[in-house]
Write a structure and sequence with these properties.
With about 450 residues, the protein is α+β, with helices and mostly antiparallel strands. The protein has 13 helices and 23 strands.
Length: about 450
């Protein structure tokens, strides 16, 4: 993409309403535009990141055996009346009526709808286990939306729902999602710590929040330092096998948010291994048994012929929230530092002297060769001063900057800068292409 033809509305000043780093940088980098409180338009740069995060989430859900569907944003109130939640959910639910005066709601979550889909088609244990997920926009009318996409009213979420014949099988489904989440966040350059969360009236140990450490996090968290260095399950992990040893390893260390913090248990952690920090929740997995299947009649005939309610779990990832969370965890004074896997472009190609035949020619060659190799490039071909070009590239945080100027080019070299470290080196064009994967 050529910057001269791209829509990238950079802001020089920090908007007053932005309270945290990710909100400030997303507005300044032209990623989002606020339309009303807690509701944003996603501009081209932001949408590319959002899509890349969604792709990683989708790939890992598919790897774990979940099957993608797409449910509507509007739901019938009748389904929520069946579960008993319509009147209990509170003012966060946006309730509306259609032209025929039927009660509808803008979905804040999808337990009722997915249960209705399941009960319509599945009636035997032979069709289990089943895990259905979608990535869809949701709405919760937060009393005080703030922090940009970190706590908005409209947000993009992956929610998955598992269906199993009993609690033992439901635990296996839970383990699959637990491991899938570890892989998902690691692929985004994040260290996400599974922390035991409140299981509500069901009780038990099958509820975990996935937390990343960040100084601007909403929660105070406590953990054993060694959990930060545990190995991430490999790409060839067998999700049809026994994943309990992986889950046991990750849950054997102390890790809790302030809501579940046990001071005595934390005190038993060696002092040099105690970590007390701020954290951001980026996902939550939860077993809720027959809470929805029983009142809504989602039942299957078991191996013994007895018809019973299925056991269910839900597994959420805040896709749009993750954009902000990654920035909170990876930035400096100059701007964003994107991990390679979710960066909107991998390379920022900077033409230091548009109009110079040699520089223009070198940039066109690099742009074409990188493109043919599948490397996503944003080429700054605008006629602006060098300082502004560098500031823009640092702000939007692309992993690599490839700088082409007349002085270095006269020596047959171009400059390659790694955004995360600031390391620079002069390379031949061929060497730079090879370094960036375009041999």
């Amino acid at each position: 993409m050529r910057l001269s033809r791209y829509f990238l509305p950079i802001l020089k000043e920090t908007p007053k309403e932005a309270e945290i780093v990710s909100h400030r940088l997303m507005l300044r980098a032209g990623m989002i535009r606020q339309q009303s409180a807690g509701i944003y338009s996603w501009l081209p740069l932001g949408l590319k990141v959002l899509d890349k995060i969604g792709d990683i989430v989708r790939e890992e859900q598919n790897r774990a055996g979940a099957i993608e569907v797409l449910m509507p944003t509007l739901q019938s109130a009748d389904l929520w009346r069946e579960s008993g939640r319509y009147d209990d959910y509170g003012e966060e639910m946006l309730r509306i009526k259609d032209r025929n005066k039927r009660d509808l709601l803008y979905g804040p979550t999808n337990e009722e709808m997915i249960t209705e889909i399941f009960r319509s088609y599945v009636h035997s244990y032979k069709d289990l286990p089943l895990n259905l997920y979608h990535i869809q926009w949701k709405f919760r009318d937060e009393r005080r939306p703030r922090f940009g996409v970190m706590r908005g009213r409209e947000f993009l979420m992956k929610d998955a729902y598992s269906f199993d014949v009993d609690q033992d099988r439901a635990r296996e489904a839970y383990h699959r999602m637990f491991v899938a989440y570890l892989r998902t966040y690691a692929r985004m350059g994040l260290t996400a710590i599974p922390m035991r969360a409140d299981s509500g009236p069901i009780g038990g140990d099958m509820s975990h929040e996935f937390i990343i450490l960040a100084s601007t996090g909403e929660s105070q968290v406590f953990c054993h330092k060694d959990v930060l260095d545990l190995p991430i399950p490999a790409e060839d992990t067998d999700f049809r096998g026994d994943l309990k040893p992986i889950v046991d390893q990750w849950t054997s260390f102390y890790a809790a948010t302030d809501e579940k913090h046990d001071e005595a248990a934390f005190a038993a952690v060696p002092a040099d291994k105690q970590v007390s920090a701020r954290g951001i929740e980026v996902g939550h997995i939860f077993y809720f048994g027959t809470k929805y299947s029983e009142p809504m009649g989602a039942k299957v005939a078991g191996p013994d012929g007895v018809v019973r309610p299925v056991h269910m779990g839900s597994y959420g990832v805040g896709v749009s929230r993750l954009v902000g969370a990654i920035i909170e965890a990876s930035h400096d004074e100059a701007g964003i530092i994107w991990p390679d896997s979710v960066a909107p472009f991998r390379v920022g190609l900077i033409n230091m002297k548009p109009g110079d035949a040699a520089v223009d020619g070198a940039c066109e060659r690099l742009y074409a060769d990188l493109g043919r190799a599948g490397v996503d490039v944003l080429m700054d071909d605008t006629d602006t001063r060098a300082g502004a070009k560098f500031a823009t590239m640092d702000l939007i945080g692309l992993p690599w900057q490839l700088i082409v100027g007349p002085k270095s080019l006269a020596e047959g070299k171009v400059e390659l800068k790694r955004r995360a470290t600031g390391e620079r080196e002069l390379l031949t064009i061929e060497a730079a292409l090879a370094r960036l994967g375009a041999k």
